[in-house]
Amino acid sequence: MSMFDGFKFRSVSSPIHQMDPRAKFIYVCILFVVTVMFSNLIPLIILFLIQVPFVFMARVQKEWMRSMKGSAMFAVIIFVMNLLSLYFYTGYETFGSILERSLAMTVRFIVLVQTFSIFFLTTSPDMLGLALEQSHIPYEICFAFTTAVRFVPVLAEEAQTIMDAQKARGLEMEGGNFFKRIRNYIPILIPLIVNAIRRSLELAETMESRAWGANRNRTNLYVLKMRREDVLLILISLVILAVSIYVSMNVQMPSIIQLLTS
Amino acid sequence: MIVMDDVYFTYPNGVEALMGVNLKIEDGEFVAIMGQNGAGKTTLVKHINGLLKPTKGRVLVDGVETTKVSVATLARKVGLVFQNPDHQLFSETVEEEISFALKNFGYDEKTIRERVDWALNLLDLNEYRKVSPFMLSGGERKRVALASVLAWDPKIVILDEPTIGQDYRQKERLKQFIVQLNRQGKTVIIVTHDVEFVAECNPTIMLMRQGRIIATGEAREILTNETLVNQASVALPEITKIFKGLEDFGFPRKVIDVYEAADILYERLGGQR
User: Fold this and answer.
1) Is this complex's ipTM strictly greater than 0.90?
2) What are phi and psi of B3, to 5 degrees?
3) From the CA of B246, how many Å to the nearest CA of chain A?
4) What's the CA gap between B144 and B167, in Å, rounded?
């Protein structure tokens, strides 16, 4: 569960939390694009490092560490898979360059996790919904989206309870071969899905009995407004994008090995 | 025998659910754990079958420390029925649901069939044998959940909030059932808010408040102690409230049982038995 905590909204008062969710969303999108654009180690490490100050500004270091730790296992898998496939299927590269390429892919994954972790840690589901709504997306869709996000931790907790209940009936989650392990998830997934469906039906009924959708023209208590900081963040994001495009088109990226040997 | 020795438990999110719990439950004892919401009752019982391991302190079941064995091993001895049956039902038929645990424990086909039959009879579920558990009513689902645990005949039976969502008649049957299990020599532990239910069953009571056990004793002693009961956000049984109001007329205070109360009143009104 600790991995999820790295993506769960943390209510802290910080300059990052107060930023307009739309600005943060643009930032996330641009960082996503840029991260996927590079496959060299150096720019990816730079992308990782430039985000670290955000984490500290938002005061979510502990939760961020959780998402990092949680992704460590996947990172190792990505690293090993890359290493093996590069080693066996591309004969012409030296071991050093293979190592560097694999590391780059791993860092790319970590940067993506980090970017989304920062976004979700500092943006409450309510704000996210508000941002969608004020971008003129139909309210039904916004509502479905925020509800889905909000119920993720609830489902995670429920999954834990179900797991406990089945363990109490002698289900052993560990051990066994691959197929047995998959079979072990049936007693957990079925109650989880059934309960989720039941809950959504209940939610629909309770909402309708509270006059959901009675008025076409909804107003909001909070109206989002871009402030100077938000514009600044968007500008920084655009600069990152521009620089990245320029660099990737015009600069021959040196590898770390080249730097070390020259 | 269940022994907890200065048990502390903190959830990963930092909530301190148990803070120094000491208890001893003998074989064949009947215990009700009561207390306010969030007092740590469910956390406490999850320690008995090893679902949770103490952050500090020791939990021993029949002399074996729960940290040393798997949940599945402990579960054979300790049957824990969860509060919400929907957290465990998943099979296509009630029959299969009940045989799930038996298969996990590796019983042979014949024994499984016998045990399933036995459990279906025990909880009056025979007519639902081939029905999907999802089609049943809330009370029936609860009984299926109960049957699915009792099927392997665990030595210790723990029921988390067994009375929730049950109508009067089912409650009455549940009460008889629990008392019967206890008479057969099983250790029975129930977690509940239902004072009236407990007053009628007359178990040993453990009152919890903020992660600690604040009192242990006979139902008659604990449930008539207003200060204690208030501390644990539990109400006095209705009958006790009446007798408390009648104290000035020389009525005894420690009455929790309706039949006993009727006898006292009958006698006082000049009736002869």
Assistant:
1) no
2) -125, 130
3) 45
4) 16
Query: Taking the CB of residue A3, how many other CB atoms lie within 10 A of it?
Result: 18
pLDDT score of B136 = 92
At A180, the pLDDT band (50, 70, 90 cuts) reads confident
Q: What is the pLDDT of residue A1?
A: 46
Within 8 A of B80 by CB-CB distance, chain A residues are 168
CB contact under 8 A, A168 and B51: yes
b/e per residue, B207-240, with b = 16+ CB within 10 A? bbbbbebebbeebbebbbbeebbebbebebbebb
Contact A162 B72 (CB under 8 A): no
Do A241 and A152 lie in a common domain? Answer: no
Q: Do A186 and B100 touch (CB under 8 A)?
A: no
- Chain A residues whose CB is inside 8 A of the B13 CB are 5
Are the CB atoms for B236 and B244 separated by under 8 Å?
A: yes
Q: Percent of chain A having pLDDT more than 90?
A: 40
Cα separation, B151 vs B123, in Å, equals 10
CB contact under 8 A, A171 and B12: no
| Mean confidence (pLDDT) of chain A | 87
Cβ-based neighbour number of residue B22 at 10 Å: 13
Average pLDDT of the residues in A63-70 = 87
Q: In what order do the strands lie in the sheet with B78-81?
A: B78-81, B156-160, B187-191, B30-35, B204-209, B212-218
Residue B90: list chain A partners with CB under 8 A: 186-187, 190-191, 194
Q: How many structural domains compose chain A?
A: 2
| Residue contact A191–B75, C-beta within 8 A | no
CB B113 within 8 A of CB B67: no
Boundaries of domain holding A166 = 137-208
Instruction: Tell me whether residue A253 is in a domain.
Output: yes
Is the Cβ pair B82, A194 closer than 8 Å? no
Lowest-pLDDT range, A144-148, A257-261, B50-54, B244-248?
A257-261
What mean pLDDT, rounded, does chain B reach?
A: 91
Between chain A and chain B, the number of residue pairs with CB atoms below 8 A apart is 65
A158 touches chain B (CB under 8 A): yes
Inter-chain residue contact A170 with B75, CB threshold 8 Å? yes
Q: Is there a single domain that holds both residue A154 and residue A257? A: no
Q: Which residue of B has its CA nearest to A193?
A: B90
In a domain? residue A217: no
- Contact residues, chain A, for B70 at CB < 8 Å: 172
| Domain limits for position B263 | 237-273
CA distance A206 to A188: 27
CA-nearest of A5, A204, A8, A229 to A122 is: A8
